[in-house]
Design a protein that fits this description.
Number of helices: 12
Distance between the termini: 53 Å
Shape: globular
Structural class: alpha/beta
Number of domains: 2
């Protein structure tokens, strides 16, 4: 059974449509020139959709001008700020909302009513929606309902939001169920697809990290899902600098071509040792030094590669808290300092130039003498 087909402006996703490839701008949305330049660069490298973050009314004003300067298909990513949906709707082709962030604002309105309002706005403007569930920001109600059952909480959250949209007759939507662990991505997407084979899926391994490991992690998941008809659009989320953001698109196209040609990469030992996850460079990164820091973390921790530990380097508030809580050591990067954590325990805030020395000390405490 194939999925139903949705439309993002003129782009068909699902059913017999080709799998589309997406990316996201790493620029600050209010830097209009830089954002337009990156949108056009991604579009020129074959991105079918380009996502932009909008967090406030100044971003909305910038978006208006960005739309005036480009005809690329634009998706706006709304995290905590779903009330901006109506303001941005005339200037985009698709809206992504995160079920795990709907509770932050307008606490007296039910989640059901919030979803209905977002869908009403989308319908009025002919937009598609993505229900974007992320392991770092699962809705509290589902964490409480399924304690210790991470995959179940993600799947049930996505399925419930599908039911909400179906019940109001809105069907121009797809879902994503993302995690930084490729095995969890495979498991949650398989389970969701078994539950709702009619719903198109946006595939991605969130915080896949630096090259080349970020592509390897993504391939591990995609190669197990796409041949089974799971995944109608995708993004490869990489930690790369501005001028190399197109690498996400190139990697996505290459993976799809290899799968079509039956070329699969078996990496039996991948994930058995040190795992460094880092969020993709996007407009919510609060200091551009984040990318360089992630690269430095990879370099200075290479001696511990045989140890099964996770180090998370997170650049913004969206997934930073959840992902660093789950990591053995986590770095949550702010505008001028980096918060170092051991699981949920805060170890302190350090300057960018000094945090890797402290990280190495804490890593040595975990792994013991070499």
């Amino acid at each position: 059974m194939s999925t139903r087909q949705i439309k993002v402006r003129d782009l068909a996703i699902g059913a017999d449509a080709p799998i589309s490839v997406q990316s996201m701008c790493a620029t600050r949305t209010q830097d209009i020139d830089a954002t337009v330049r990156q949108v056009e660069m991604l579009n020129a490298h074959g991105a079918d959709l380009v996502r932009i973050a909008v967090d406030n009314t100044k971003d909305v004003e910038a978006l208006k001008e960005i739309r005036r300067q480009t005809r690329a298909r634009l998706v706006v990513d709304l995290q905590e700020n779903f009330p901006l949906a109506e303001a941005i709707a005339p200037y985009v082709d698709k809206i992504r909302y995160n079920p795990g962030h709907l509770h932050h604002l307008d606490k007296h309105t039910s989640i059901e009513k919030k979803v209905e309002w977002i869908a009403t706005v989308a319908r009025a403007h002919g937009l598609a929606l993505r229900v974007g569930v992320n392991s770092g920001s699962i809705a509290p109600d589902f964490l409480e309902k399924y304690p210790g059952e991470h995959t179940t909480a993600i799947v049930e959250s996505a399925a419930w939001h599908c039911e909400l949209l179906d019940n109001i007759g809105f069907t121009n939507y797809l879902v994503s169920l993302k995690d930084s662990d490729p095995a969890e991505v495979v498991l949650s997407n398989r389970r969701f697809h078994e539950r709702r084979p009619d719903v198109p899926i946006h595939l991605g391994v969130t915080e896949a990290g630096l090259l080349p490991d970020g592509i390897t992690k993504t391939r591990i998941a995609f190669e197990q899902l796409i041949p089974k008809g799971i995944g109608q659009t995708l993004r490869v989320s990489l930690t790369v600098p501005f001028e190399k953001k197109y690498e996400e698109v190139k990697a996505g196209r290459r993976i799809l071509e290899d799968i079509r040609n039956g070329k699969f990469i078996s990496v039996p030992d991948f994930g058995k040792g040190l795992n460094i996850i880092s969020c993709p460079s996007c407009s919510r990164v609060e200091n551009n030094a984040f990318v360089e820091l992630a690269e430095e973390v990879k370099r200075v921790t290479a001696y511990a590669k045989a140890h099964k530990l996770t180090i998370a380097v997170m650049g913004c508030r969206v997934n930073g808290p959840g992902e660093t809580d789950d990591a053995d050591l986590g770095l949550w990067c702010g505008p001028s300092t980096v918060v170092l954590k051991r699981k949920a325990e805060m170890l302190g805030a350090f300057k960018y130039a000094e945090v890797t020395n402290v990280l190495k000390q804490k890593l040595d405490e975990l792994i013991g003498p070499l």
